[in-house]
Amino acid sequence: QVQFVESGGGLVQAGGSLRLSCAASGMSLSFNALGWYRQAPGKQRELVAGIRRGGGSTKYADSVKGRFTISRDYAKNSVYLQMTSLKPEDTAVYYCNTDPSLDSSSWGQGTQVTVSS
Predict the structure, then answer these.
(1) Dihedral angle at the C-alpha atoms of 91, 82, 98, 8, nearest 10 degrees?
(2) In whole angstroms, how large is the CA radius of gyration of the chain?
(3) Residue-wise pLDDT tens digits, 89-108
(4) Pick from 19, 22, 26, 91: CA 20 to 30 A from residue 13's CA?
(5) How confident is the model over 16-35, as pLDDT tens digits?
(6) Phi, psi of 105 (to 5 degrees)
(7) 56 near 69, Cβ under 8 Å?
C-alpha cells in the first residue's frame, strides 16, 4: 500500500516562500500523474497543482497560478511544490497524492503551511 510523507511546511510571513516535498513508498509513482492538494479549516480539500507523467505538463488552480511550481523526481519517487509570494489565504494543510487521488486510506498526514499577514 502506498504511503505519502509530506514535509517542508511551516510559518512564513506574507510574501515569503516555502518548498514542500513529498516522498512515496510502497508504490512507484512513475506511471501516475501527481498532485498537490490543500485543505483549509472548514473547506473541502482542493487540487492546487498537478503534473503528468512522461513530459510532465503541469496545471494549477487559478488561485496559485504564477506563484506555485510543481515538479517531480522519478529517481526519488518524489514530488515537490515550490511556493512563492505566499498569501494568508494559502494557509492550509498540504497533501500530495496521485491525480486523481487514490482511495481515502492513501492520504498522508500532510504538512501545515501558515502564512501570517
Answers:
(1) -60
(2) 13
(3) 999 999 999 999 998 899 99
(4) 22
(5) 999 999 999 998 988 899 99
(6) -80, -5
(7) no
